[in-house]
Every structure is written in C-alpha cells, then in structure tokens.
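User: Okay, second chain of the day. Same drill as before: sequence in, structure tokens out.
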Amino acid sequence: MPDPAQLLQMITTSLGQNFGLGTLTAAAANDRYEAFIWLLVIQAAQAEQAQVALVDVYGNAATAPLLRTSPGVIASQAYPYTHAVISFPGKPPLEAHVGIKTAGKSSVPHECDVMVLEQVEADACRTSGANPRYGSAVIVVECKYYSDNLPLRLSREFLGLCKEMRSVDCFFVASSTSSSVLKVLAHKHCHRSANVLPNSQTAQTLVHLFREKFDHFKSLN
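Assistant: Same drill. Structure tokens below.
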C-alpha cells in the first residue's frame, strides 16, 4: 500500500507539478490503493503521449487531490472531487475518475473503483445528474487491497461486474494474490493483475496493459 509520501512522489513525477495530497494523507489503505492505481492509469496515458490535467467537478485546476472514499455520482458537488482530464492530440478527450457509479447493462448503478470514460459522456451526466453508461467506458478497474490471500468470492463479484459492463474494459487488480481467484478469472479470459504494488514489475506490466487500451482508443477515434 503506498503511503502518503509515496503518493506525493508519484503525483509530482506523473504531473510535473508540486501538488498537495489533500485528503489522501488521512485516507484508509484501500482508498490510497485506488489512488495508486488511478495514477498508474495516468502514467499509461502519458506514455501514450497524452496531456493530463487534474481538475475538480467545476473544471477548475486541482492543486490538492480530493478523491472519493465511497461510491458517488459523477455530478456530485458536495465536495470539489478531483478527476484527471486526458487529452490525446486530435482525439476526443477522456476523464479518469475514482469511485464513481456507472449504469450497467441492467441500468442498475455499479461502483467503479477507477474508471476512464469519454468526456462528452461525463459532461452530459454532470448536466443531467445521471450515471455514465457502461458503453462510454474505456477502462474500468476493480481494486482490491489485501495483505493476505484474496478470498474466492472476489472472483465471483468481479465476474458479476464484467457481465454488467463490457468485459474487455474491466481489469481486476490486487495488492496480493490467490491461485484460486486467478484461475477462475483466467478461465473466463478476464484481465487480472496480482501483487501490484509501488515500484514493482507487476505495476509496470499493468501500465503496459493500460497503454494497450489507450492505443486501441486512439486507433478507433
């Protein structure tokens, strides 16, 4: 689990500015883990030549990240929550969020720990108050912070999320591992990454997988 100092170093390395940590200094381990994976998404976008800016729900520059620690709607103005705007030259802009609700195939809201979606959809939802539609997603990440082996139920929960979204967009990412969980997800051909921690090879491999998704997006648009 990245501590606040590690997160600050990752933010400044990724964005080249001296951002504060905001509420991340007091966040629980699982919340900081989601922030860590969100930063890996940002690093992947930058490696694919994107410009990235942190903004709040009003579109203003964010200098102290304020990320959700419980599921919320993208239009919420209860707090000036932070998201990343990802801009590839000549392509429709994207946004990367933490902890937003999304409308799945059944129209039932589902929490996405980390989600990259089209900005045009995000803007429409901020206006209407609706949850983003699953079809607007480019990357959806289920983040699991565990110090021990992962319980098998996590594989079943993730498969349920995949059925509600487009499974090709969904990634299961965890700080530890479990042969049973990975076997179930491998059998279903799911994206899965275990033992993903700061400064690890597994984290770099995950960045590569995210880069492939961004490259696919650029090719389609």
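Residues 4-220 form one domain.

User: Thanks, on to the next one.
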